[in-house]
Design goal:
Blueprint: E1 6-9, H1 15-21, E2 26-28, H2 38-42, E3 46-50, H3 57-60, E4 68-72, H4 81-87, E5 90-93, H5 95-115, H6 117-125, E6 144-148, H7 152-163, E7 167-171, H8 187-193, E8 196-199, H9 213-219, E9 224-227, H10 236-244, E10 250-253, E11 272-274, H11 283-301
Parallel strand pairs: 1-2, 1-3, 3-4, 4-5, 6-7, 6-8, 8-9, 9-10, 10-11
Helix pairs in contact: 1-11, 5-7, 8-9
């Protein structure tokens, strides 16, 4: 039986993904690629990575005949697409798999921050309930939700929240004729109209600090921000100041500019819910991701 082809791992991969790849090839961890003999590295034509790790140039330099990179996730902001094109490397992402779980997380965070569920749980666990009323929180039904970005994820968020009795409006560069919700061409106006601002745009230079101090002021003291896209989309200094001074009412964040070490000032803010970039991390997603990455890698290492 011939040796299985090597598949380079450009970053950490879940065990389920490595197990799937092990059926079609030999996964080589990123910290072992340099130690391979030149001929073995030259034979590698497929690499697997994630939207978080991207494709570091120093690893690509070690793989002169790489033709395909398969990425776990939807984001492309960590990739130098011009460099990949120059090297003749095609990028295949698995963004279609993350959409449903990420939309579900956005909905969950919206409800959690509105009803203050994390602190409500602590109120009961601490024994405080017997001596203190928890207070009133925000009703979700009937509110207006501004969706920033109506791609695959934004569309699902709008659908689910519309079904829960909210009124979606959305902002995108161009209106989508097929969208059943109102399009707002001006982001600041969207924030003014919204009770919730849900961010679902790609990361990268084009969206860096898209949500800044003027947008947060427009959202106002009754408004909530939910971000399940990329931490770079939000000006975190402006957001922290807005949360500290009640410019907005609260925020629920699954992504941060610095991961896994977010700005420590967030931890001191009681009007936030913070989660560790887990929007797409479900048991169902893990098995689906392993199967899809294995399929995409097999197209390269097992042609025909």
């Amino acid at each position: 039986m011939p040796d299985l082809p090597d598949i380079a791992l450009l970053g950490y991969m879940m065990d389920s993904v490595c197990d799937g790849l092990g059926q079609i090839g030999t996964p080589v961890p990123h910290d072992r690629i340099a130690a391979l003999p030149d001929a073995r590295r030259a034979a590698i034509t497929c690499a697997v990575t994630s939207a978080v790790h991207g494709a570091p140039a120093e690893l690509l330099d070690l793989l002169p005949n790489l033709r395909r990179v398969v990425s776990a996730g939807a984001g492309r902001d960590r990739y130098d697409m011009a460099d990949l094109e120059r090297r003749g490397i095609a990028l295949f992402d698995t963004g279609g798999l993350v959409s449903s779980d990420t939309a579900e997380m956005a909905v969950g965070l919206l409800y959690a921050v509105s009803r203050d569920l994390v602190r409500a749980d602590a109120h009961v666990r601490s024994g405080t309930w017997a001596g203190a009323h928890f207070g009133h929180r925000t009703r979700v039904t009937g509110k207006t939700v501004g969706i920033v970005g109506l791609g695959r994820i934004g569309w699902l968020i709008a659908e689910r929240l519309a079904g829960a009795g909210l009124k979606p409006i959305y902002h995108s560069r161009t209106p989508l004729p097929e969208a059943p919700w109102p399009h707002e061409p001006d982001l600041e106006t969207l924030a003014q109209r919204a009770d919730y601002l849900v961010v679902a745009v790609p990361g990268g230079a084009a969206t860096r600090h898209l949500i800044d101090a003027p947008i947060l002021r427009a959202l106002g003291p009754a408004g909530f921000l939910i971000n399940v896209s990329r931490g770079s989309v939000v000006d975190e200094d402006a957001l922290i100041e807005a949360l500290q001074s009640d410019v907005i009412r609260g925020a629920a964040l699954d992504v941060f500019q610095s991961e896994p070490g977010p700005d420590p000032r967030f931890a001191a803010l009681p009007n936030t819910i913070l989660t560790p970039h887990i929007s797409a991390i479900t048991e169902d997603f893990a098995s689906e991701l392993a199967a899809e990455i294995t399929r995409l890698a097999a197209e390269e290492v097992q042609p025909g």
